[in-house]
Amino acid sequence: MVRDSSPPNGESGAALAAVLVIVAVMSVLAISVVEAARFSTLRTGNQADADQTRWYLLGAEAYAVRRIDQALAAAVAEGANVSDWLDRTITLPLDDGSMQISVASGDNCFNLNSLARQEEGGPIIASEDGQARFSRLLSILGIQSHRTLAASLADWIDSDSIPGLGGAEDEAYGGEAAIALPANHLLGDTSEMRSIAGFDGSVVSRLARLACVRPTTSANVIAINTLRPDQAPLLTAIFGPGLPLASAESLIRDRPIGGWDDLEAFFADQRIAPIQLSDESRAMFTKLSRWYVIGIRVHSGDMTETSVALVDTAAGRGRVVRRVFGARIANNLL
Known about the structure:
By secondary structure, the chain is of the alpha+beta class. The chain has helices at 9-78, 128-140, 146-157, 201-207, 232-239, 245-253, 263-267, 279-282, and strands at residues 89-94, 97-105, 110-111, 116-118, 124-126, 211-212, 222-223, 285-286, 291-300, 303-312, 319-325. It has a five-stranded antiparallel β-sheet with strand order 1-2-9-10-11, with helices on one face. The protein has a two-stranded parallel ribbon with strand order 3-6. Strands 4-5 form a two-stranded antiparallel ribbon. Strand 1 (89-94) and strand 2 (97-105) form a beta hairpin.
């Protein structure tokens, strides 16, 4: 008698099902491994492209700083007008795209940090002169609470926790329970204005084209040959009621071709000459800019990236003191 050694149908079916489950699991794992490898390759490629674009930005920045140094040297040695090549866009080709570079004067704006003063290594102290200048500028822009806003900004910057007249320190922001308290430090960016008491969207937007932040408490010196008509409030804030806003705008529009030859020619203009200026006010103007803003946009393959850099030439040559990747370039004062 021959005995059948094959497994029962039930056992055979269970084994087949187990094999099928294992195959399905292995297939899913294989697909996952392949997808992970594919995404890893894509990430590596994207990172390489991003790194290449970043190097393009830094290279373009170095080129622009070199151009600034050359222009300043020519201005000192030959009397060349630096403003002749500012506010223009240079386009340079790349193997897989292009880059645009623009350089603008960074002097013609109100340095918000000038509402304070600081001796080397000492505390930051609210500046009455700085507050007065800022208050005048706000008034020219039609902002009614100009004195209070000036005091609030000075309190935000100065080192102490004692509010000035009309100002705001910790208690005005809610004390220890507040989301943000006065920094008691120099501003690092104009966006910080939104955290300061009284600086609502309307105030910030009206100041956007005139305010800037520099890593110093010194007031910005106005570069007379790079002023734009929309920056006329800066002139009126310095000259006072003797130079109404309309006169300041016409003064800029009527600037001689190639700019004023020197400061005396500027002060001799019939709209300015009758105004009695202190030595301090006269010192707030210059022919050569100290600060420059470099804007760069790089298109490389499928990627586009921007950067804005602030350049200080106080030492006789350009030095990048701040850089922001991904910043909006148009009219960016930093």
